[in-house]
């Protein structure tokens, strides 16, 4: 699915933010991406969602060498990647529904299907009463759910989330992680950047850990016993 | 009244850009000017055509009374002129106008006094040419055969008038072309500004997989809707102006000017002004967006 070989990234003429990054993510895998603030988590994700090109090294995505990909090919590749941006990146002038609809409209989905799918997924993340609300009227956690709904609306092959639980309490964070787990079970490859050790400990997934620009892959450690209680939380209605 | 787009959903909040309102009004102004220039060109064409069909091939010979001069009587001279005319190649017919007809022609200048039998009336011969006539040669022969006869050659001043009308028409069309160029530049400017203002949003759309065409469609829809509505307003204003001129021209005493009224098909041409502006804006917006985005990562 994703392969990095000796990838380095620098901004301008600064020292490299990422150095000698090498790893492979299998299709249908779930990884956390951890590291101190400023360690380069967002930068690594940006390389994965093709916002940046590496300064050196080889990035292979969906079996294609990114160095060979032209500007013209990018939209097609990017449509297969769902991204939850660190700051949500919702369009303020669009309603929740229209924000979620963006990937579908770009793909040319018929308008009737767009509205049906988007209302459904927004109801599913508990925003059925806020379909036409503008992001500025939503709470942090609600915006986050809109962003997440948008990232998954077109069933991406690869889902990248940058601190999707950054602005919410552990309860909501947990629910959001269950959402990603659902997608992962449906076959999506998932990478989630987070600081939240408490959450990571509750889910049994390997980690990519960034330290000083270098990457280590840490295996899953087994889940802690809080699992049963979280499962109930997941079942209860949103809000 | 603000020309604020009634907006269809757009991924870029272009409708609230300050440049949007400005673009709408500019388009209204340009449509107004373009419609007036076009209408002017069409009216001048019509006028030139009417002069043409009314006067083309028409010559008038006037034989003036010359009291006291040692020449033949007026009627004899008129007969002589007729004979000369009828024997001239290229002349189809030559008819002597009756006194009543002459009086009627002179009435606008002389009033009812024109029919005063005491007034020394010239004789007028209406000549219809059906081929090229050697005007200079005809003048000479008329002068010797019928002293006091003058040949009034409409063709000369008609040609002048026609080339003047042509110049006016060309100038009006030039104005229309310039307005089109101004429209293109305005749209380029507005689109570039929009892209600069909304660059973060455009980048985000790109990251979500938007093609350049998808982004340019947002701009196209926006400028088309603005120019259709701006153009409509401009056209209404132009229509009002032309109606006013039409009313004013009807008030003129002398009917020197033909009626300043357009035919139905000419109104249709004017209706095309906003449509043409919209089409121009669409093409310009697409071209500008695609070209600008090419340089974005
Ligand atoms: N656009 C940029 N231009 C220059 N430097 C940048 C840019 N983006 C990030 N950096 C630098 O790269 C380093 C890594 O930043 P990055 O955002 O990837 O960290 P992060 O791990 O996501 O941090 P956080 O956990 O706070 O989100 C930082 O030192 C930052 O200053
Ligand atoms: Mg970050």
Structure, described:
The complex is a heterodimer of chains A (239) and B (297). Chain A has 239 residues and is α/β, with parallel strands linked by helices. Chain A has helices spanning 41-48, 74-78, 96-106, 111-124, 140-152, 170-185, 197-202, 227-235, and strands spanning 2-10, 16-25, 30-35, 56-61, 64-65, 81-84, 158-162, 189-193, 207-211, 214-218. Chain A has a domain at 81-155. Chain A is built from eight helices and ten strands. Chain A is globular. Chain A starts with a strand and ends with a helix. Mean pLDDT of chain A is 87; it is low at 223-239. With 297 residues, chain B is of the alpha+beta class. Helices cover 67% and strands 8% of the residues of chain B. Chain B has helices at 18-55, 74-86, 99-110, 135-145, 154-197, 199-207, 212-251, 264-294; strands at 58-63, 91-96, 123-129, 149-153. A four-stranded antiparallel beta sheet of chain B has the order 2-3-1-4. In chain B, helix 2 runs antiparallel to helix 4 (135-145). The longest helix of chain B has 44 residues, at 154-197. Mean pLDDT of chain B is 83; it is low at 1-7. Chain A binds chain B through residues 49-51, 71, 74-79, 81, 83, 85, 89, 91-94, 98, 102-103, 105-107, and chain B through 9, 11, 13, 16, 201, 204-211, 214, 294. The structure holds adenosine-5'-triphosphate and magnesium ion. Adenosine-5'-triphosphate (ATP) is lined by residues 11, 17, 35, 37-43, 86 of chain A.
Summarize the structure.
The complex is a heterodimer of chains A (about 240) and B (about 300). With about 240 residues, chain A is α/β, with parallel strands linked by helices.
Taking all Cα atoms into account, the compactness measure Rg of chain B is 31 Å
Strand-residue fraction of chain A? 15-25%
Q: Provide the gyration radius of chain A in Å.
A: 18 Å
> What topology, given as strand order, has the largest sheet of chain A?
6-7-8-3-9-10
Main sheet: strands, sense, barrel of chain A: 6 strands, mixed
């Amino acid at each position: 699915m994703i392969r990095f070989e000796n990838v380095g990234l620098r901004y301008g003429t600064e020292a490299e933010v990422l150095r000698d990054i090498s790893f492979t993510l299998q299709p249908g895998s779930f990884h956390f991406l951890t590291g101190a603030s400023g360690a380069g988590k967002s930068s690594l994700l940006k390389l994965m969602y093709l916002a940046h090109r590496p300064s050196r090294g080889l990035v292979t995505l969906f079996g294609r060498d990114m160095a060979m990909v032209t500007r013209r090919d990018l939209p097609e590749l990017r449509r297969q990647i769902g991204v939850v941006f660190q700051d949500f990146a919702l369009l303020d002038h669009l309603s929740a529904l229209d924000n979620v609809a963006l990937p579908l409209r770009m793909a040319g989905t018929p308008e009737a299907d767009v509205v049906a799918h988007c209302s459904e997924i927004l109801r599913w993340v508990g925003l059925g009463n806020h379909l036409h609300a503008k992001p500025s009227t939503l709470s942090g956690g609600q915006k986050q759910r809109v962003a997440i709904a948008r990232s998954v609306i077109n069933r991406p092959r690869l889902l990248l989330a940058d601190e999707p639980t950054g602005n919410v309490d552990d309860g909501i964070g947990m629910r959001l992680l269950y959402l990603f787990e659902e997608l992962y079970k449906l076959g999506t490859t998932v990478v989630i950047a987070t600081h939240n050790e408490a959450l990571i400990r509750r889910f049994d997934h390997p980690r990519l850990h960034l330290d000083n620009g270098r990457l280590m892959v840490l295996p899953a450690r087994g889940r802690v016993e809080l699992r049963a209680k979280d499962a109930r939380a997941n079942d209860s209605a949103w809000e | 009244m603000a020309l604020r787009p009634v907006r269809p959903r757009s991924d870029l909040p272009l409708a609230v850009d300050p440049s949007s309102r400005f673009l709408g009004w500019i388009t209204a102004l340009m449509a107004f000017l373009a419609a007036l220039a076009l209408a002017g060109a069409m009216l001048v064409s019509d006028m030139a055509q009417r002069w043409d069909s009314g006067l083309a091939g028409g010559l008038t010979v006037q034989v003036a009374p010359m009291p006291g001069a040692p020449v033949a009587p007026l009627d004899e001279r008129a007969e002589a002129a007729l004979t000369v005319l009828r024997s001239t190649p290229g002349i189809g017919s030559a008819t002597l106008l009756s006194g009543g007809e002459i009086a009627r022609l002179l009435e606008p200048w002389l009033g009812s006094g024109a029919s005063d039998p005491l007034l020394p009336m010239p004789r007028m011969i209406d000549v219809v040419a059906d081929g090229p006539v050697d005007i200079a040669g005809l003048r000479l022969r008329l002068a010797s055969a019928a002293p006091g006869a003058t040949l009034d050659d409409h063709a000369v001043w008609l040609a002048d008038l026609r080339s003047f009308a042509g110049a006016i028409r060309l100038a009006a069309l030039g104005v229309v072309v310039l307005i089109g160029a101004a429209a293109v530049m305005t749209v380029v400017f507005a689109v570039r500004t929009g892209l600069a203002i909304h660059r973060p949003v455009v980048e985000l759309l790109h990251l979500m997989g938007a093609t350049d065409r998808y982004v340019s469609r947002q701009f196209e829809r926006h400028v088309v809707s603005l120019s259709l509505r701006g153009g409509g307003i401009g056209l209404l204003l132009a229509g009002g102006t032309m109606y006013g001129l039409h009313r004013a021209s009807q008030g003129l005493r002398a009917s020197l000017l033909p009626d300043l009224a357009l035919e139905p098909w000419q109104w249709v041409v004017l209706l095309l002004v906003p449509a043409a502006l919209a089409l121009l804006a669409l093409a310009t917006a697409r071209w500008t967006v695609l070209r600008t985005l090419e340089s974005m990562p």
